[in-house]
Amino acid sequence: MKSAYVVSDLHMFCQRSQSHALLDTIHDVARNADLFVFNGDTFDFKWTVLDSVEETAEKAVEFLGELARRCPDCHFHVNLGNHDRAREFVERLDVLARSTPNLTWHPYYLRVGSTLFLHGDVAAWKLSHLGIDRYRSHRLHKRKQGRLKNRVYDAFFKTGAHVAVSRLANPHRWTARKVSAFLEDIGHGSEDGVEQVYFGHTHVAMSNYSYRGITYHNTGAAFKGMQCVMLKAKI
Ligand SMILES: [Mn+2]
User: Fold this and answer.
1) How confident is the model at residue 229 (pLDDT cuts 50, 70, 90)?
2) In angstroms, rounded to a whole number, what is the distance separating the alpha carbons of residues 48 and 214?
């Protein structure tokens, strides 16, 4: 059986992210895996600490390219999330994928057998597939946020309130219902043979949550006080 791992919401390049503590583990795991999924918001172009979105995109692609080269037996899949759906990144990612046989990117989701991987920003927006396209194209142009706004968020994170806010806003059942409605819309519901769903985005980790014939897993986020759980996926 193939081994697959998934992680999401690393928010690399955001100063509130603690992703740096996970990078060695990611590398070690990927070296022995057949498949590795970056399930969205791997990079944060909105809150990047670098000077520009372009520079962040360069560094992001550099990171992925190097990882793919160092782990030639693992196939990397990059699903986009709302924070890394930046035109500057997607263009470079596409170039990288064309010259890297073990790296593929997906705008919305990846399905492997009865398992589906998606970022899950759909959970917060009740939209049909078409609506998602529209929503995403609106946000394809990322603007880096200013220093003041960044400081306000830093202060908010220091209070720890971001953890409670995410939990309150995303009860498991509500999230599963939203994701499930979207999956049915796009033809990947339980009736279409999907059994396991891995997502992120809400920053609230959960595993083995059953809802209407599908088992949901959320890999959390790499922010202080939150759990970022790299999961071995069932494929
Ligand atoms: Mn997200």
Assistant:
1) confident
2) 35
Cα(1) to ligand 1 centroid in Å equals: 30
Whole domain around residue 123: which residue ranges? 4-233
Q: Tell how far the Cα of 208 is from the centroid of ligand 1, in angstroms.
A: 20
Question: In whole angstroms, what is the distance from residue 203 CA to residue 219 CA?
Answer: 8
d(CA 79, CA 59): 17
Q: How far is the CA of 228 from the centre of ligand 1 (A)?
A: 13
User: How many angstroms separate the alpha carbon of residue 121 from the centre of ligand 1?
Assistant: 6
Segment 112-127, tens digit of pLDDT: 999 999 999 866 555 5
Ligand 1 centroid distance, CA of 162 (Å):
14
φ, ψ at 70 (rounded to 5°): -75, -20
The CATH number linked to 23 is 3.60.21
pLDDT digits (tens, 9 = 90+) for 141-191: 567 777 767 776 676 666 676 676 666 666 788 889 889 988 888 889 999
Number of separate domains in the chain: 1
d(CA 166, CA 209): 18
Are 219 and 231 in contact by the 8 Å Cβ rule? The answer is: yes
